[in-house]
Each structure stands twice: as C-alpha cells, then as structure tokens.
Design brief:
- The chain is built from two helices and no strands.
- It is mostly helical.
- The mean pLDDT is 91.
Length: 80
Amino acid sequence: MQDMTMIWNAILTMAVGGFLWWIRTTSASITKIREDNLENREHIALTYATKQDVKDDLQQIMARFDRLEDKIDDYMRMDK
C-alpha cells in the first residue's frame, strides 16, 4: 500500500510540475508579446500621419494639378 502511495505522489508531482512549467512558459510568452506590442505602438506613433498632414499634402497635390490644368488650357487656347 505504501508503494502505491509513493507512485501516486510521484505521478501527481510530475503532473503538477509539468503544469507549473507550462504556466511559467506561457506567462513568459505573454510578457514577450506585450513588450513587442508596446514597441510596435511606439514605432507606429513615430510614422503615423495625422489627418491634418494628409489634408495639407492633398491640398498641395490638388494645387499642382490645378496649375497643370491651367497650363494645358493656356496651351490649348494658343493653338486655336
């Protein structure tokens, strides 16, 4: 009977030890993922274009297109 108790204790010890090892590695992985996520957030914040920046750039592009259209119109009028 005592041998059976020792075997059972050994099995439970191995099972609990394995479970605790799995929890530890999972926790370490989660911590690593969180750190990577924070690093990515910082990187995105550096390269993020605000709405105002995009709006200003779009206005500059549209102004250049307007100038090109005016030049084309002037050229077309000269040919007539």
